[in-house]
Amino acid sequence: MQPHFSYYLGVDAGYAHHVAVLCDATGTPVSEWTVDATVEGVMTLVDHVAAQVDGAVHTVAVGIEQPHDPVVELFQCRDAVVYTANPKALERFRASFQAAPCKDDRRDAWQLAEAVRLGLPALREVTQPRALVQEIRWVNRQVLADQQECQRLGNRLRTAVHTVAPGLLSLCPAADEPWFWALLAQGATPEAAQAVSQATIAQLLQTFRIRRHSVETVWTTYHTAWVPVAGGVYAGIRYQIAALIEQLQACDRVLQAGRRQLTTLLDQWHTELRQETPEHPTVVEILWSSPGTGERTLPTLIGEGWALLEAAQLPLLRTYSGQAPVTIASGNSKRVEMRRACNPWLRQALHHISSVFWQHDPRARALYQAHRAQGQRHSRALRTVGDRWLAMICAMIRTKTVYDPAKRQGLGIAKAA
């Protein structure tokens, strides 16, 4: 953090309006403004601050809770330095001013300015990554959200099918495959199933290239899986299944389009990096060379942690991804807990990477088995593997080398700090 600024601005951003308090170097409030939460309102705030500091906006340090806000963008365009902090840390900082739980927008803005002035360790400077990284981040978040939505709809479809035809789930236990949706679309009642011929089933399996089930197996199961239920249940479930199938097919189309867009963006990003450093492996190539990194996890690593990965900042990566545990000690008591204040997308990606990495890397396998032998749970052992994976990746980025399994044979496991 830069040590000295002439002014400190705290902005309490809201949905309807923003409250800002400007303090001088001694912490004395100089001015305060309340503007609408619109582009015009934020631009007016920036103009007011610029007029107050005689146009030297670069001497102003801005504090705000939400890093993804138009306030951040507009102040950075005027060369101001913007800092953000976790709301929980700011709440504890607020409690150090007074014991009474007094809280309002003006007070929050002033305390944000004070937090920046005092240089709290919980604050971090907001930096805007390159445009392509920004695009990868937001497209990947939408893809992950679409994937979760498909899973929710698939679970609901599975429950509906289990109500009237539990035997059909032997063909697709999770009810999450397009060919199974097409089969159910043929009819979701015993009468409709009887009208479906083997030729129709054969055409369906051929269209979706399903070879693990024979035509006779699917046709027989489709005809005999239905169970007797009370009157009206078939009609209600038929409507529910039809609605869920329509939603699933639309969601799957959006999901597949998003994944294709991510592939295109990753290719563009790799090409751009290759042109900048043609003599060494790029960070993308280094990440891709490691077991566990694939088409589903690489966009998250780039979109959520590119700045830290490029700089190989291991301590920040360990905490930001949730791999480093939290130690709570007081007197004779001590306990270690999972870190929950972290980036959820990055933690999920590290979980999937660790699940594959320990099965293919001999040192990671020995580490996982050692922690499991100590009685730790599967998820806890995976976080330890993910912690060591980050240390390995940072070392590979610093030395500009790709993953080499021969170098991992017969070496001891260094304990991460």
Topology:
Layout: E1 7-12, E2 17-24, E3 29-36, H1 39-52, E4 60-64, H2 70-77, E5 81-84, H3 87-95, H4 105-118, E6 124-125, H5 131-164, H6 178-185, H7 190-194, H8 198-207, H9 215-224, H10 233-276, H11 283-289, H12 298-310, H13 314-320, E7 326-330, E8 333-337, H14 344-360, H15 362-373, H16 378-399
Radius of gyration: 28 Å
Count of β-strands: 8
**SSE-based structural type:** alpha/beta
For the largest sheet, list the strands in their spatial order. 3-2-1-4-5-6
Order of helices and strands: EEEHEHEHHEHHHHHHHHHEEHHH
Query: Could you name the ranges where pLDDT drops below 50 across 5 or more consecutive residues?
Result: 411-417
Give the count of structural domains.
3
Overall average residue pLDDT: 90
Our estimate of the beta-strand percent is 5-15%
Tally of helical runs:
16
Largest sheet: 6 strands, mixed
Helix content: 55-70%
End-to-end gap: 24 Å
Explain how this protein is built:
There is one protein chain. The protein is an alpha/beta fold. The chain has 3 domains: 7-125, 2-Layer Sandwich (Nucleotidyltransferase, domain 5), CATH 3.30.420; 135-254; 279-408, no CATH class. It contains 16 helices and 8 strands. It has helices at 39-52, 70-77, 87-95, 105-118, 131-164, 178-185, 190-194, 198-207, 215-224, 233-276, 283-289, 298-310, 314-320, 344-360, 362-373, 378-399, and strands at 7-12, 17-24, 29-36, 60-64, 81-84, 124-125, 326-330, 333-337. The protein is globular, with a radius of gyration of 28 Å. Mean pLDDT is 90; it is low at 411-417.
